[in-house]
């Protein structure tokens, strides 16, 4: 039963990550990407753009940190010295010409980093984050229908400014509450090191700022013996369905150098299927022939084995009506060491 469940889980969850990255059926209107200094979100955003171009999806990048328009982006919106209202107007204007010629074209909006907007002192104190995000994916007119998906990147290592009101939740709480999918990125080499420590019942190591060492920003990790090139990024996905049930899964996205930009087949795999993370168990061919060690011999000689096979047990004879057992009576031959007891015989 276990292999069937594993196969079903693999098929279902690989189809889910393919829908999310390829923006099919608007599986996730708002995706929150949590990255860190150890594993930036740049490779994942490039994968979003690559798949969007293959599917002919209009890509808009709202740049808070990016200075130059990346390849494959249709509209590049710089946020330098712009208010949130100006950003929304420019994002809406960038799609109007496309919507006029092809109203059914899907749209992908990427925010390379939401932290500068959340920590900006120029933002109006009445700035409402949910309204800002909703206005980006909302259609410009009530009659228009646009399948838009918003991907927001949040840097976990950037400290937050104190809240103006003690009763308002922090921005990360709002983002995780609003998001329909939450993707947390991890370094593959760090995940392997932590799993190796857990397999030995040791405390998993920490890296970067979590080490709490002065001057350490990025954790350095030597290559583990036997792991080869631990390349790629680990994706921890939490997807929330409309029914309320959630899906939790870990994936591995290989580096872009291993496939061409026009590659159509799915490249993301489950982390459990990776041989470095979950190596196959090697079975010793001679393990089944070994006997437990003891102070006496447990095996049988050839003579003892032949004598054991020649013994006819009473219940075999009782199964035949024509045998000496007469169909059910158990026969017993007294030996020299047996003594006859009338009382036991009567019982």
From TrEMBL:
Region named Disordered: 279-347
GO cellular component: cytosol; elongator holoenzyme complex; nucleus
Listed Acidic residues bias regions: 334-347
InterPro entries in alphabetical order: Elp5, P-loop_NTPase
Domain of life: Eukaryota
Pfam families: Elong_Iki1
Composition-biased stretches (Basic and acidic residues): 300-310
Signal peptide: none
UniProt KW tRNA processing keyword: yes
GO BP term (any one): tRNA wobble uridine modification
Pathway as given in its UniProt record: tRNA modification; 5-methoxycarbonylmethyl-2-thiouridine-tRNA biosynthesis
Location relative to the cell: Cytoplasm; Nucleus
KW Acyltransferase (keyword) present: no
Keywords, in A-Z order: Cytoplasm, Nucleus, tRNA processing
A GO term for molecular function: tRNA binding
Family classification: Belongs to the ELP5 family.
Name this polypeptide is given: Elongator complex protein 5
Organism taxonomic ancestry: Eukaryota, Fungi, Dikarya, Ascomycota, Pezizomycotina
